[in-house]
Amino acid sequence: MPTVLMTGGTGLIGRALTGMLQQRGYRIKLLTRGKQAVEAGIQYLFWDPERGKLPAEDLLDADYLIHLAGANVAEKRWTAARKQELVWSRTRTLDLLWDVFSRHPHQLKAVVSASAIGYYDASQDRWFQETDAPGKDFLAQTCVEWEAHAHRFEALSVRVVCLRTGIVLSRQGGFLVPFLRALRWGVAPILGSGVQWISWIHIHDLCRLYANALITEQMVGAYNAVAPEPVTQKNLILSLARLLKKQYFVPLHVPALLLRILMGEMSIEVLKSVRVSAQKLQQEGFQYSYPDISSALLALLQTPNGMGNHA
């Protein structure tokens, strides 16, 4: 039974991915900062990245490493201290693991690390591919560092995959939940102009990507983890309203200036418009369960687990 070592496994993506990997026969080790309940097939390992503490001897039998750890970008205003935390939580954690695997015999075959489509320069209105240069803003440079720290594992003859993830659609949390809550009260929030492009992915397809990346040896380097059809923020809200059968709702336009006042520099990410290409994944044969926004939202809203017929 192959073993997957995972950071950030108790978050939105980690919980869904853990369940999928267990169904596929993997043994799971989750690095965590707090005590967790005992679960069949999951071994929780305590670590304290701030103090550089981790159970090195329990890591070395891992066949694969999935790196999801990272402070929530949208949780707090981007003060200087918060920016440092956003970078550190993604890179220092990888460095601690690299130190362990570089100093001891191991059987690690692949590292699959999260990254983000914030890598790209959103000031350019075009389709972005994996070969494009990064942007110059804070989040873009954070992604550059994030990926660079993951690629250190290549020096250990370990295959590295970085999934530049778009907006993740899930009913259990994240981007979609505030909009669903507002629409249930008959309010349709339009952020800024509403014409900004959102490059998204259903959480089920994202988990499938991670699972496939573990064992697909031709997957190397960066991949855009997005669905093939981006959608504008306004059209996303209208699609949600239609599926919720909201015949009457009030569009609430939230001006960009107000968002900047309330959120500071973080508002850049809320208002960012970026169309990211899924062509590389499609050319390599990945078949999306939810390639378009209608099928994705329908599955999330009208089935108990949000997975449609693909659970």
Using brief descriptors, characterize the structure shown.
alpha/beta; 10 helices; Rossmann fold; globular; single chain; 311 residues; two-stranded parallel sheet
Architecture overview:
The protein is of the alpha/beta class. The protein has a domain of 213 residues: Rossmann fold (3-Layer(aba) Sandwich). The chain has ten helices and 15 strands. α1 packs across α5, α2 packs parallel to α3 and α6 crosses α10.
Task: List the SSEs and their pairings.
Elements: E1 3-7, H1 12-23, E2 27-32, E3 42-46, E4 64-67, H2 80-103, E5 110-116, E6 127-128, H3 138-151, E7 159-165, E8 167-169, H4 176-184, E9 187-191, E10 197-198, E11 200-202, H5 203-215, E12 221-225, E13 231-232, H6 233-243, E14 250-254, H7 256-263, H8 267-271, E15 275-276, H9 279-283, H10 293-302
Helix pairs in contact: 1-5, 2-3, 6-10
Brief synopsis:
By secondary structure, the protein is α/β, with parallel strands linked by helices. It is built from ten helices and 15 strands.
Instruction: Pick out the low-confidence regions.
Output: none
- Give the class from helix and strand content and strand pairing: alpha/beta
CATH superfamily of the domain at 3-170 and 200-228 and 275-290: NAD(P)-binding Rossmann-like Domain
**What is the typical, i.e. mean, pLDDT?**
88
| Count of individual beta strands | 15
Alpha carbon gyration radius: 19 Å
- Percent of residues in beta strands: 15-25%
Topology pattern, helix = H, strand = E: EHEEEHEEHEEHEEEHEEHEHHEHH
Sheet having the most strands: 7 strands, parallel
Q: State the CATH architecture of the domain at 3-170 and 200-228 and 275-290.
A: 3-Layer(aba) Sandwich
- In angstroms, what separates the terminal alpha carbons? 22 Å
Form type: globular
**Order of adjacent strands in the largest pleated sheet:** 3-2-1-4-5-7-12
Q: Report the CATH C-level class of the domain at 3-170 and 200-228 and 275-290.
A: Alpha Beta
CATH topology of the domain at 3-170 and 200-228 and 275-290: Rossmann fold
Q: Give the % helix.
A: 25-40%
Number of helices: 10
